[in-house]
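Input for the complex:
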Amino acid sequence: MNQDEYAGATLSIDLDALVANWQDIDRGVSPARAGAVVKANAYGLGAIPVVQALAAAGCRHFFVALLGEAQEIHDAAILPPDATLIILNGLMPGAEPACAAIGAVPVLNSPDQVARWAALASMTGRRLPAVLQVDTGMSRLGLTPDEVRTLHARPERLASLDLRLIISHLACADTPDNNANRAQTATFDRLTSLFPGVPRALDNSGGATTAKAGHYDIVRPGIALYGGAPQNDPASALRPVVSLEARIVQLRTITPGTGVGYGLTFVAERPTRIATIAVGYADGWSRHLSGKGSAFIAGHRAPIAGRISMDSITLDVTGIPDEHLYPGAPVELLGPHQGIDDVARDAGTISYEILTSLGHRYARRYRHAAETRLQRSACA
Ligand SMILES: *Cc1c(COP(=O)(O)O)cnc(C)c1O
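Predicted:
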């Protein structure tokens, strides 16, 4: 039995669109180069196929959040030898040898992380590669400006390390005109001037898609690669990458006064046709979409009627032509009529959360028609 055939819905991931999005960003930031943020299983889309496709297109800097994510990619043996795998959150105490063993590069976010990585380098007599993060105003990860100056004054603390990159992160990159971006950029320039010659990376998707004087050496796009709008404006989205198609499980017509779903929060006001699909909050279709979100059937909008259940959603399909309504009929949850930013808006969240919540019960199809042989030379 092919279980996929009986899944509640099929999630399609267009790796060609993903690669085209990466190429657009890579060209747009030239002479900087685009890396790719593939943390959280490449925002839910599958780290292995995503890394494979982007590596074939010439991407050489891959960013994950955790050591375990780096290990999974390393163990799949899909990285070109000149690619760098960078762990954004850095390492928990004791994780240093495991990181060195797979050749991943930790981001050093605190004096403590610097000391522990340098200690391993001294102990093993190997000059270990490192990325340094400086906090330019987000107060999340990275050395404070004072800690950066202290580190600069004590060069022996970095002597056993090979400093490959200095990074920081913008808090407001999705609103390019925000003054905070200018302030953070100025702080980044000031702090990184203490380490001349070390490559730099500041921009995520928002920064990388903002027209400005420069993008330093590497950019770190995530959401824009996966089709989400990098800026507050939905029109800033590149190509959509995911689509999700469910199928009708059951149809019924209910009389006025009849309730639908848990809590009977939807009550029919007129004869109403209800279609049930086999996708629910266990599949990442947020319960916040109860009575708010939509699906599309042959291009016709079908509002969600009542609460979202764990394994099913009820749709009001009244008025949709009969020929489109039958058990097994396709129902668009993500596609040409409704993208991840539309669903995010209805759910009161951001496209990142829609993607990273996509469940594990879908059949998954990867489209990768075009062999991506158009490689620019590997990054320095
Ligand atoms: C997640 C993350 C990114 C990617 O952000 P997007 O907004 O998805 O482009 C870049 N840099 C850091 C440090 C991150 O944590």
